[in-house]
Structures are given as structure tokens and as C-alpha cells.
């Protein structure tokens, strides 16, 4: 059983990842959800997490709000890809249950310090601000953390927010650099792998056929992203980025990983947020960062459908 803190910025694809995590209580013990400003502002990402939690019927999982902006850079949301609310065209409501008391970085530091070393896994699907703040607050968490599984970065694929940077890293490159250079064991789902996992028409139709509240909401979210993909990129089937993180935690055999060194560009105005990934290592077995190169997309969607049907 994985004890998980899920740090996110919902966000259309974060919401789908949340549905997956909520549906797998026998595999993931969700200790806390922490939210951060990213795709939309901090108040909305926290509200959206609570709204998704209510649809999933998982009020038992506490949600803690976190950073309202990056460490140093000005906030820049991705509302163009997630809609004004952050949840595309999903019908909105005010969640019955509110947020838990406490700030995300304190909660992350507190939970990691109060559990045995290696016991807590972290999933990060937004800018890395909360985790970087927790590491600053309590540096001892670095050696007590279990795996940190993140969505962020790009190598072969180029960027999605600029020519050379992926959004989560670009939004707070200093936080990402703190996390990647900390020595924590990181598994990285970048665009190279998430662009292989697309909600094409057949996969989206299969979700439409599942009659649960989570499946109906997921179908709505995917259709929103698919329409943008069609209009902006001219492509069929938007990538589902953040669900790859939860899919990896539940079924790591669906992904191929490669040890690497990873550095984040934090200075150059042109390439800020770029992830420099180096595979040529003297001692690959000692690498602390594993970069995902390949995903079994059919396997990821089979898992998603199975979870949405529960
Ligand atoms: C990442 O950026 C966000 O817009 C998505 O939610 C995802 O986490 C993809 O680059
Ligand atoms: Ca996200």
C-alpha cells in the first residue's frame, strides 16, 4: 500500500488524475491532497480539488491549500488550456466540504517527518512550489522521502508553453531545480511520454460508455481538452499528462524509465524552464532521477477505464 501526498493544480488533467487516485483506495492511501497556484489561481485550484473530491465521494481525504505563486517568478496561469474555472466546461458547484486547516508546505514537511523514512510517496502534477518550500522549511525531509513522481519537463518533444519549456517547470523553474538537485529519488513524466498517451476518439467514446459520476465528469473534461487540441494544434486527441503520474504509481510496468541527470534552466529569458536531460552517466545505478521514455498508452487507458467504472 502506497501512502501518498498528491500535490496538484486542478486543472483538467489534474482532475482526471484525482479521479484515478480517489478510485484506488486499496492501492493508494491518500494521506492528503495539497494544491498550488498553476493552471489557475490558488483559490480555484483548491476549490476544484474539493469539487472533484465531492464527485468522487471521498470527503475522507483532507485538502490543504498551498502557495499562491512561484518562488521568484510572477504567476502565469494556463487558463487558456483549462478554461476560466480550471475545469473546462464541467458544471460547477460550491463543494459541501471545505479545506483542512494548515498550509501545504507545512503539511508535506510534517507528514514526511512523522512517518518512517521512505514511507511517503509524493505525486506532483503542478508547479513544484509546495515541495520546494517544504524542503526549505525542513531539509531533513529530503532523505526521508520515498519516491517523488512528477509530471514535468520535456526532452525530445520540445516545450508546450514555450518552444523549449513544459508548463509545470516553466511556471516555477527555481522550485523544480530545488527538487531535482535535492538528491530525492524522482520519477519524471515529461512531455516525451505524456504525448504518447492521447484521448483519441475511440478511447474517449469508451469512457462515455461508463455510467458513473467520475466517468461522466472525466468525459466532459477530456472533450474540452480534445476540442482545444483540435482548434489550437490541429491534432486529434489531447495528451493526458497528469494521469500518467497516478498510472505509474498503480502500474509501473506500463512505463519505461531511464536513469539520467537533470538540470533546469533558471536564468535565460529565452529558454527558462528547459530541462537538460543527460543519459550518458558514469554510474547509472547511482542516478537519483528516472526519466520516462515510453508509455503503454492502451494500458494507461485500460487502467483509467477500470478505475472510472468503480
Ligand atoms: C502540465 O501543465 C498543466 O497545464 C497540466 O495540468 C499538466 O500538469 C502539462 O504541461
Ligand atoms: Ca497539472
UniProtKB/TrEMBL annotation:
Its EC number is 3.2.2.1. One of its GO terms (biological process) is purine nucleoside catabolic process. Residues 4-301 form the Inosine/uridine-preferring nucleoside hydrolase domain. Gene3D superfamilies: Ribonucleoside hydrolase-like (3.90.245.10). Signal peptide: none annotated. It comes from the Bacteria. Keywords: Glycosidase, Hydrolase. GO terms for molecular function: purine nucleosidase activity; uridine nucleosidase activity. InterPro entries: I/U_nuclsd_hydro_CS, Inosine/uridine_hydrolase_dom, IUNH, Ribo_hydro-like. Pfam families: IU_nuc_hydro (PF01156). GO terms for cellular component: cytosol. This is Purine nucleosidase.
Amino acid at each position: 500500500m502506497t501512502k501518498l501526498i498528491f500535490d496538484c493544480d486542478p486543472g483538467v488533467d489534474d482532475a482526471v488524475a484525482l479521479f484515478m487516485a480517489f478510485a484506488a483506495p486499496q492501492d493508494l492511501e491518500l494521506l492528503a491532497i495539497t494544491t498550488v497556484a498553476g493552471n489557475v489561481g490558488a483559490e480555484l485550484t483548491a476549490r476544484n480539488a474539493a469539487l472533484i473530491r465531492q464527485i468522487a465521494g471521498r470527503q475522507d481525504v483532507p485538502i490543504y491549500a498551498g502557495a499562491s505563486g512561484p518562488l521568484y517568478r510572477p504567476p502565469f496561469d494556463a487558463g487558456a488550456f483549462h478554461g476560466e474555472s480550471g475545469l473546462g466546461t464541467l458544471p460547477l458547484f460550491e463543494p459541501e466540504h471545505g479545506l483542512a486547516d494548515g498550509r501545504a508546505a507545512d503539511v508535506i514537511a510534517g507528514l514526511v517527518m512523522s512517518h518512517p523514512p521512505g514511507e511517503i510517496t509524493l505525486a506532483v502534477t503542478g508547479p513544484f512550489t509546495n515541495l520546494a518550500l517544504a524542503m526549505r522549511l525542513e531539509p531533513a525531509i529530503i532523505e526521508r522521502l520515498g519516491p517523488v513522481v512528477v509530471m514535468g519537463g520535456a526532452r525530445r518533444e520540445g516545450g508546450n508553453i514555450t518552444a523549449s519549456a513544459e508548463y509545470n517547470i516553466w511556471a516555477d523553474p527555481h522550485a523544480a531545480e530545488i527538487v531535482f538537485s535535492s538528491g530525492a529519488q524522482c520519477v519524471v513524466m515529461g512531455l516525451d511520454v505524456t504525448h504518447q498517451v492521447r484521448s483519441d476518439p475511440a478511447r474517449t467514446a469508451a469512457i462515455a460508455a461508463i455510467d458513473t459520476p467520475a466517468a461522466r465528469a472525466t468525459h466532459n473534461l477530456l472533450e474540452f481538452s480534445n476540442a482545444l487540441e483540435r482548434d489550437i494544434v490541429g491534432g486529434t486527441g489531447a495528451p493526458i499528462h497528469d494521469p500518467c503520474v497516478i498510472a505509474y504509481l498503480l502500474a509501473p510496468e506500463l512505463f519505461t524509465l531511464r536513469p539520467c541527470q537533470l538540470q533546469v534552466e533558471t536564468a535565460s529569458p529565452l529558454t527558462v524552464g528547459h530541462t537538460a536531460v543527460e543519459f550518458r552517466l558514469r554510474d547509472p545505478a547511482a542516478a537519483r532521477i528516472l526519466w520516462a521514455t515510453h508509455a503503454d498508452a492502451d494500458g494507461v487507458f485500460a487502467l483509467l477505464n477500470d478505475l472510472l467504472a468503480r
